[in-house]
């Protein structure tokens, strides 16, 4: 029996008059990497955003570890459940500044450790985030999420803008994080990547979610 991560019950979300999620029931266990997979426009991002309360469903319930999200303080939830978006979103300043925005009290050891977890060199700390390559930016965003020590990580097609080398490095980082106990929900549509990273796949399409 796996521990409960997220549970959705009879969840409805409408966009532009259409039910993108039409009364879905889905369970996302706490262990391993769950991939949300499906064609473009199927509602994967919509579903992912519900898990961090960036959106709320029109009806139905989304729970995390047994508690409905609307009973949790939203900022506390987002400390426990971190998110990395499709496009890297660096803040102004250095890499160190970016990490400090997320965790002002993190000490040097914690900062170096988190960079190590995403395979970034500590030499980058004093570089302006705007000088990083595409392949360095997304890992930095992952590090910025990890430094708050979340229990769960939501990834919205995080490698779609990355070349093959950085893409594989990002995958390895997340596989290791999941092995160390982080709950991961990964939106993807690259079938080979889904096979490489997914412990299980939820298919999203036509308003439904199926295993
Ligand atoms: N704010 C919005 N207003 C109107 N329609 C929206 C809005 N957000 C999403 N949609 C529509 O809802 C549907 C689901 O979008 P969503 O981004 O969740 O799909 P997706 O499966 O993540 O797609 P992709 O793989 O292209 O990112 C799409 O048809 C999209 O056009």
UniProtKB/TrEMBL annotation:
Gene3D superfamilies: P-loop containing nucleotide triphosphate hydrolases. Keywords: ATP-binding, Nucleotide-binding, Translocase. The keyword Metal-binding does not apply. One of its GO terms (molecular function) is ATP binding. Residues 6-211 form the ABC transporter domain. InterPro entries: AAA+_ATPase, ABC_transporter-like_ATP-bd, P-loop_NTPase. PANTHER family: ABC TRANSPORTER I FAMILY MEMBER 17. This is ATP-binding cassette domain-containing protein. It comes from Actinomycetospora aeridis. The lineage of its organism: Bacteria, Bacillati, Actinomycetota, Actinomycetes, Pseudonocardiales.
